[in-house]
Design a protein that fits this description.
The structure holds two protein chains of two kinds.
Chain A: E1 8-12, H1 16-28, E2 32-36, H2 39-44, E3 53-57, E4 59-60, E5 63-64, H3 65-75, E6 80-85, H4 90-98, E7 103-106, H5 111-168, H6 173-200, E8 208-211, H7 212-222, E9 232-237, E10 240-245, H8 247-264, E11 269-280, E12 283-292, H9 299-304, H10 320-330, E13 334-337, E14 346-352, E15 366-368, E16 380-385
Parallel strand pairs in A: 1-2, 1-3, 3-6, 6-7, 9-11
Antiparallel strand pairs in A: 4-5, 8-10, 9-16, 10-15, 11-12, 12-14, 13-14
Helix pairs in contact in A: 5-6, 7-8, 8-10
Chain B: H1 9-12, E1 17-21, H2 25-37, E2 41-45, H3 48-57, E3 62-65, H4 73-84, E4 90-94, E5 107-110, H5 115-127
Parallel strand pairs in B: 1-2, 1-3, 3-4, 4-5
Classes of the chains: A alpha/beta, B alpha/beta.
């Protein structure tokens, strides 16, 4: 964790030599340090609330730490208080901590102890900052989820009205084209809201056993619902495999990968899906390849493909692949980009297989309908999506 | 032939009665207009109280309900249905991915749906004598 350095430190010490020593030590360590000799001088500082840490002697000429700490907390609530004393007294330490001091240092001050104390404060501040940031992000997440839900009513209204108008204007080609544009814009909005919601919401799987081929076909078929249809071919080569997955979620992953491939490829796009069983340390995995014949990934795309909000498309949130990866991770698998080849882009979906006798593995597969030449356990099928 | 095609109107329904329940009156108006083109008799309710009133007055052949009505009206309406109109197919059409209410919807759709999909779902529900419970995962 890279904690942000403290900048301003105040030293309240009546013994001039000790004070100067502390100031020197702090400044040589990169802090902007200020020194005063009494509680009155300290309270007179107009910039008191700017200090991030305040070191003060347990016993000052005009009061003790117990007198000072409550007043300090009201005047400089964000400052960390460190009590310094020549007398290592356990009851005084307890009293100081109970009054809100962060630490208790004994003179002569060991520079390493002081550094460690300030480092602890920096670490604590970083944790507080992260908690505050998490709270903010959680609030934003809730807001996004709520907006996505509410948007569905508005989008339903748009869709129903546009479709009614399409019925009324069935013979006016110009107006029908306008309506198609509205529909497409509404669809883009829907995708954006759904992706933001998916990214913000936790992924809860509902696993069932289903044939992988059927799942891939459903994802492909669902592309026909897109406002902009494309000439494209999906190919794979016989046989099927049964998987225990959240079929809706995995269908979503395939759909997303197909959409990305179609966006990258010229018409007619050729996408090939194949799968095989592979061994990784300590487990067997189902390795599914989604290969297209487009230009492939650039170096920048490879580096950032799984970064949230990174996108090279003119329309898109850049959340598609991070969400797909989250879905696979939830299945205890992962998504990756295959090493570059001449053929185009190739995405690799890795899903763990349940090995006989090991019930803890999340995925059950049952191979069936092998063709005699499929000894390498590679499968596929072929169908078309026409514009 | 498209399911939106008006020439199929007369085949779609024999004046079957539908009750649409949704807090958004504009959505109700659009659905009503479309479904009437397909020869359904459509009544609508934009609140839980209106829905319960309609349920006392009529016995529709099918109900399409947004289960997320204001406060807990959706739950109360469905509870009333469970007792007074058992056997009547109920389609959930919601802004939420999964219903928080345990109810045997014959189909559960998430907005936005196309009018064709809505029509298809209604036709299937009316044709089917057996209710199918579809449980979707609780996502949020």
């Amino acid at each position: 964790m890279n904690a942000e350095r403290l900048k301003r430190v105040l030293v309240v010490e009546d013994e001039l030599a000790v004070r100067d020593g502390l100031l020197q030590l702090l400044e040589s360590s990169g802090y902007c340090a200020t020194g005063v000799g009494t509680i009155a001088d300290m309270l007179a500082l107009s910039s008191l609330h700017d200090f991030e840490a305040i070191l003060f002697d347990w016993e000052l000429p005009d009061g003790t730490a117990v007198d000072l700490l409550p007043r300090l907390h009201s005047r400089a609530p964000d400052a960390a208080s460190i009590v310094v004393t020549g007398d290592a007294n356990i009851s005084a330490s307890i009293a100081a901590l109970r009054h809100g001091a962060i630490d208790y240092l004994v003179k002569p001050i060991d520079p390493n102890c002081l550094q460690a104390c300030l480092a602890r404060i920096e670490h604590l501040r970083e944790c507080q900052r992260r908690v505050a940031q998490s709270d903010r992000l959680a609030t934003i997440g809730q807001a996004v989820t709520s907006i996505a839900h509410e948007s569905r009513n508005a989008l339903q209204n748009i869709q129903a009205r546009v479709e009614l108008m399409e019925l009324d204007l069935a013979h006016d080609l110009e107006k029908l084209q306008d309506l198609r544009v509205i529909k497409s814009a509404a669809h883009s909005l829907w995708r954006m809201f759904e992706e933001l919601r998916e990214f913000a919401a936790p992924i809860v799987l509902d696993k069932t056993s289903c044939p992988l081929r059927e799942l891939v076909q459903r994802a492909w078929k669902s592309l026909e619902m897109l406002p902009e249809t494309r000439l494209a071919t999906l190919a794979y080569d016989v046989a099927d495999i049964e998987v225990s997955v959240d079929s809706l979620r995995l269908e979503q992953v395939f759909r997303n990968l197909f959409e990305n491939a179609l966006a990258a490829c010229k018409s007619p796009a050729n996408i090939e899906v194949s799968w095989s069983i592979t061994n990784v340390p300590k487990r067997k995995m189902l390795r599914i390849l989604v290969q297209d014949d487009g230009p492939g990934f650039s170096h920048e795309q490879r580096e950032n493909a799984f970064e949230p909000f990174f996108t090279t498309k003119s329309k898109g949130t850049g959340l598609g692949l991070p969400i797909c990866n989250r879905i696979l991770e939830q299945h205890q698998g992962w998504l990756e980009i295959a090493p570059s080849s001449d053929k185009g882009a190739c995405m690799v979906l890795m899903l763990p297989l349940e090995i006989e006798g090991q019930s803890s593995a999340p995925l059950t597969t049952m191979l069936r309908a092998f063709r005699s030449f499929d000894v390498a356990t590679r499968y596929g099928f072929c169908f078309h999506l026409d514009s | 032939m498209s399911s939106l095609d008006r020439t199929t109107n007369e085949m779609d329904a024999m004046f079957e009665e539908l009750l649409l329940i949704d807090p958004d009156q504009e959505i109700l108006d659009a659905f009503k207009r479309f479904l009437e083109l397909h020869s359904y008799l459509v009544s609508t309710a934009a609140s839980g109280s209106e829905a319960t009133r309609q349920l006392r007055l009529t016995r529709p052949d099918l109900v399409v309900i947004e289960p997320v009505l204001n406060d807990d009206w959706g739950e109360r309406v469905l509870e009333q249905y469970r007792h007074s109109a058992a056997g009547v197919p109920v389609i959930g059409l919601s802004k939420q991915r999964a219903s928080r209410i345990a109810f045997p919807f014959c189909n559960y759709l998430v907005k936005p749906v196309s009018l064709a999909r809505l029509l298809e779902s209604i036709q299937n529900a009316l044709c089917s004598s057996v209710s199918i419970v579809i449980e979707l995962p609780e996502l949020n």
